[in-house]
Amino acid sequence: MHTLKTTSINGVFRFKPIKTGKAKLIITAIGCRKIEKELDIIAGKNPNLYIEILDESIQLEEVTIKGRIPIVTQNGDTLIFNPKAVNVQERDVAMNIVEQLPGTETDDHSVKIMGKQVTKTYIDGKLIFGSDPMAALKNLSATDVLKIKAYDEYENTKTKKLMYRGDLTRVLNIETKSKLISSWKAHLLASAGSNLDSTNDKGKFRKGLGFTANFFSERFLLTSNVFHNNINRKSNNIKDVLSISDPGSTYNETTYADLATERSWDTENGTYGTFRAFYTFGYNRDNTNTRSEQHYFPDNNYQQRLYEEQNSNSDKKQNHYSEFSFSNSNDKWGEFRWNQLITYNNNKDWQSLYIYNEENNLQTSKSLMHYDNLNKNFHVKEDVSYVNSITDRIGYTLESSVDINKGKNHSLRIDTLESSTTQTYLTIPSKLRNTEWNGNAQLIYILNPKNDTQISLDYSVKYENGWKHQFAWNMLSPTNPQTDEANTYSYKVNNLTQKQEVSFHFFPFKNTSCDISAGLKETTLKRKEKEMDNYRKTFISPAVAISFVHTDITNSWSAAYRLHNFVPNIVQLRPQIDNSNPYTLRSGNPNLKQSYLHSFLFNCNRMLGKHNHTIGVIINASIRQHSPVQRQPITMPKLIYRNCNTQHLHTVL
Questions:
Q1: 639 with 651: CB under 8 angstroms?
Q2: How far is CA 152 from CA 68, 109, 449, 554, in A?
């Protein structure tokens, strides 16, 4: 047997020596067809053979190529998320993508990326959906999203002065297919049905109606949202409306309406600002009725007994809320801000508890406790602030606010116990007013403009002035009502708080900032009351805070300690027993001390490995001294592990 290893240049090869007789020639080569020939070898003859070697075609089986789309990549200090790596369904919005991204924490009102809250959401570099970061996430279609970038920037990106740029905040920038300039959306939803399990005709018919109309653009936006239902629906989200949910055994009626607008401007001379207006109306009504009955039948040891209890609750809440804000900035003239907040609440609730006991078919006791309360509250708050610089390194901030609260309350209480002479019938109207003035002045000196090292001096003052009048009458004898001394009182309040503080901000390491502040707080409480000794006391306490913050888009941590001070309020200091609410009995203590709360916080977020797993560790502990309320528990360390492909949280305590 001969095996040929090499040939000549032109492909000719020879076999020698070869025995005479029968022989078989076999030719094989990788990628070529196999050739077999039978030969007769005769002595003295040298036969020549020409053999053509042909390529062999091979039919391969089906080949599947598997690849992994990276859900997140990093470019410098920017995280770039790929929406193609997550599950997106029809009618989804950008928020449904963000919920599946590694390192994110979401709820109905906020989004955190690697432990830091998002303050703005850009669309292709523009604030198409306004200053609310959630507006873009809840209104932008998920199918229009190409990339989502997360990074840090200063609060005011348009100013050239270091004094006005603010703090570093986390933002999102969403790249879209459509390159939006403006967006509008509107939908109308209606539903009706019946709760077949309900025995109450009032709560049997269930209905829902919702309307939404929104217009968004970089300079102007207008949004409206209205819905009314009695099926426990709390939003106008289409996916929530179309989902099947249990309306519940209690009757709940909800009405909600809001209207918001925002206008922004940016002129060539460097002046820029915004105006925002928002109004919302809410009405909620809840009815709950429960009844329990227990029967004990007689035997050798027990008599026949019946225990019956009925509990009814009803709440009606009507809330009005409006907010207006205006800001205008200029590098030469500084920044001016104004904010107004107005709320009006009209709430009514009543509770009724009926207890009936029977033994051997004879009534042994029966009692009824009824509490009816009507509360109206009006609140207005005005805030004004101005920021400017004296030189390139010296600046100042002036802030002032006034906060006014007015309220009226009227309650009716009925207690009866037929097995004794205990009977109570009280009607209690009350009025209150409280006005609070706040002022703050801050002087800032920038020590090093390159790394934003600065020192500041702060002075703040708060003055409270108010009164409360409450009168109670026992109406057991309607023609001759008697004053109930335990629930009748009138007093005035004057409180003054001053605080001086020094703060130092610097960078001890790269990407790591440190803030240290220390100061003194002085609070003087005054109460004047005819039927009780006047109260006056001054509380003095230190104010200390220190924090370290390391900012990296994939690896961030913070450690902080803060000493909080809490001064008891007038209600906690009044020694008189207040039993106007039968479900709550309270009394103050004039000897209460101010309480101190030592807070320790450590927070770490880190992205790990090629699969973009994220790990978060939160350690939060607090120690409270002289607490006038229930002590706060110490929170044990918590370890949170997140996987980019799931939404499960594994917590180890």
A1: yes
A2: 28, 20, 19, 12
| Short-list 419, 421, 413, CA closest to 474 | 413
As a whole number of angstroms, the distance between CA 343 and CA 380 comes to 6
CB-facing half-sphere around the CA of 608: CA atoms within 13 A: 10
Q: Name which of 555, 545, 551, 546 is nearest 509 in CA terms.
A: 551
pLDDT at 632: 40
Q: Could you report the per-residue pLDDT of 257-274, keeping only the tens digit for each?
A: 999 999 999 887 788 899
Backbone angles phi, psi at 98, to 5 degrees: -60, -35
DSSP conformation class of 43: T
Q: Which residues pair with 407 in a beta bridge?
A: 377, 432
What contacts 74, CB < 8 A, 6 or more positions away? 80, 553, 554
Structure tokens belonging to residue 580: 């106007």
Are 332 and 392 a contacting pair, CB within 8 Å?
no
Backbone angles phi, psi at 583, to 5 degrees: -90, -5
| Tokens encoding 151 | 């990074």
* Per-residue pLDDT tens digits for 221-233: 999 999 998 877 7
Work out whether strand 555-566 and strand 577-581 pair parallel, antiparallel, or are unpaired: unpaired
Q: Using CA atoms, how far apart are residues 18 and 172, in angstroms rounded to an integer?
A: 83
Closest CA to 114 of 98, 126, 125: 98
Q: What is the pLDDT of residue 199?
A: 61
Angle at 465 between CA 575 and CA 459, to 5 degrees: 110
Residue 121 CA to residue 141 CA, distance in Å, equals: 14
How much is the pLDDT for 482?
87
Q: pLDDT: is 10 or 235 the higher one?
A: 235
Taking the mean position of all CA atoms in its chain, how far away is CA 604? Answer: 19
3-state secondary structure of 20: coil
d(CA 467, CA 431): 8
Mean pLDDT, rounded, of the chain: 84
Mean predicted confidence (pLDDT) in 194-207: 67
Torsions phi, psi for 180 (to 5 deg): -55, 140
The CA distance from 624 to 630, in Å, is 10
Report how far residue 470's alpha carbon sits from residue 65's, in angstroms, rounded to the nearest whole number: 79
Pairing assessment for the beta strands 116-123 and 168-176 based on DSSP bridges? parallel
Q: How buried is residue 635: exposed, middle or buried, by Cβ count under 10 Å (0-12/13-18/19+)? A: middle
Identify residue 305 by its one-letter amino acid code: R
**What type of residue is 453?**
T
Q: Beta strands of 418-452 (E only): which ranges?
A: 423-448
Return all residues near 59 (Cβ < 8 A) that are at least 6 apart. Answer: none
Buried-exposed string 77-108: b where 16+ CB fall within 10 A, e elsewhere: eebbbbbebbebeeebbbbbbbbbbbbbbbee
- Tell me the pLDDT tens digit for each residue of 609-634: 777 788 889 999 999 888 765 444 44
What confidence score (pLDDT) does residue 51 get? Answer: 77
17: cis peptide before it, omega within 30°?
yes
Pair type for strands 78-81 and 305-330: unpaired
Phi, psi dihedral angles at 202 (to 5 degrees): -70, -35
pLDDT in the model for residue 247: 56
Tokens of 243: 């989902």
Residue with tokens 């005054």: 526
Alpha-carbon distance 256 to 161, whole Å? 43
Residues 6+ apart with CB under 8 A from 117: 110, 111, 170
E-assigned strands of 390-531?
394-417, 423-448, 453-470, 473-474, 482-483, 489-509, 512-529
Cα–Cα distance, 641 to 580 (Å, whole number) = 49
How far CA 312 is from CA of 148, 296, 473, in Å, comes to 51, 25, 25
